[in-house]
Amino acid sequence: EVQLVESGGGLVQAGGSLRLSCAASGFSFADYAIGWFRQVPGKEREGIACFAGRDDITYYTDSVKGRFTISRDNVKNTVYLQMNSLKPEDTAVYYCTSQSYWGQGTQVTVSS
Questions:
Q1: How far apart are alpha carbons 4 and 100 in whole angstroms?
Q2: Among 13, 29, 34, 44, which is most exposed with the fewest C-beta within 10 angstroms?
Q3: DSSP the chain
């Protein structure tokens, strides 16, 4: 059974940092694309960062380039999202996804 479990969300002031984690199980972690989306109530889910596959090629949406960094630990089967210089508009529920599976999400709230 594929499982993706996010953690690390919380409340932070603008300009602060958070690191999200997504622990994966039930599949060969290193062989698949994996990434992060976020969603604000009333809006569509937005893809923000991902690993495209087995290699280390990464993609970022423009709004987070230079501030967010995705990384992975293939021993721990975990993908991370380091978020720096957070802005109030980064407030959302953040989801981890791979192969059409989704985690439960973790709330990130950035206060101004």
A1: 11
A2: 44
A3: --EEEEE--EEEETT--EEEEEEEESS-GGGS-EEEEEE-TTS--EEEEEE-SSS--EEE-GGGTTTEEEEEETTTTEEEEEE-S--GGG-EEEEEEETTEE---EEEEEE-
Question: Is the confidence at residue 54, as pLDDT, over 80?
Answer: no
CA dihedral 68, 47, 109, 70 (to 10 degrees): -30
CB neighbourhood size of 84 (10 A):
14
Distance CA 16, CA 36 (A): 19
The overall average pLDDT reported for the chain is 95
Q: Quick one: tokens of 13?
A: 């002031």
CA 82 vs CA 18, 22, 100: distances in Å: 6, 12, 23
Rounded CA separation 22/20 (Å): 7
State the Cα angle at 6 between 33 and 46, rounded to 5°.
60
